[in-house]
Amino acid sequence: MHRNAPRTVRLLACAAVALPVLLAAGCSSDSGDGGKDSDSTSPSASKGAPTKAAPARFKKLPDSCKSVAKGTIKDLVPKTDNASGKRVGSGDTNDSNSCLWSGLDKYDYRQLTVSLKRFDSDTSLGSGDKRAQQYLDQQAGETLSDKDNKKTKQDSVDDVGEQATGISYEVRKKDSKGKAEDFTGERLVGRTANAVVTVDYEGAGFEDGKTPKLGDLKKKARKAANEVISHIS
């Protein structure tokens, strides 16, 4: 009994110490295994360091107003007042920028908007490519969920960038005088690496004009999107 007294005293002393001190001091039995077990279950040993996202491919964006040829603008937006386009929004154009064209040819109205957005890689948010893909889905979802849009239809697009989708729709709009007009439109969203281009192209036939056919809008929206993507480098 006297020979076991020192061991008993040590165990009681350790039990009286607060938990943080126990972990730091590594109180244990005479076997000496305690320190080894605590090392193997530490958070740093099991989880490891955060995985670094792959670097983004594109570091800047082209000017959307200069990314569509003037011949294409003439075809898509006849009689436009400004073939060079109108800048939309502000901020760092290397991260995002948009351009707008509109024109009225007799009673045929057309409007084209081209928007570009770029994503950097982020350890907590993911790679630039992944973030761009999420934004593409978001852009498509906005058009599909808009309650004003009727007869929406989404189609996959295999000839624009690395990934693309198109959404066609019909919508009734009122002008400043409260007169309603029927529009048809196409939103095409395409991605190449960490950059996304969104093309919104719609039109109406005022008075005796005819509402544009969706097939024509789709074809021309794809043409514009491919021209823009060719300028991304």
Structure description:
- With 233 residues, this protein is α+β, with helices and mostly antiparallel strands.
- It folds into two domains: 2-47, no CATH class; 64-230.
- The chain has helices at residues 5-15, 19-25, 34-40, 43-47, 70-76, 128-145, 214-230, and strands at residues 86-88, 96-105, 108-118, 150-156, 163-174, 180-192, 195-205.
- A seven-stranded antiparallel β-sheet has the order 1-2-3-7-6-5-4, sandwiched between helices.
- A hairpin with a 2-residue loop joins strand 6 (180-192) and strand 7.
- It is globular and about 60 Å long.
- The N and C termini lie far apart (83 Å).
- This is DUF3558 domain-containing protein.
- Residues 144-156 have a biased composition (Basic and acidic residues).
- Residues 29-60, 139-165 are annotated as: Disordered.
- Residues 1-24 form the signal peptide.
> What is the N-to-C succession of helices and strands?
HHHHHEEEHEEEEH
- What amount of the residues lies in strands? 25-35%
Shape descriptor = globular
Measured distance between first and last alpha carbons: 83 Å
As residue ranges, the low-confidence spans are 1-46
How many strand units?
A: 7
Q: What's the domain count? A: 2
What is the percent of helical residues?
A: 25-40%
- Rounded mean pLDDT is 83
The tally of helices reads 7
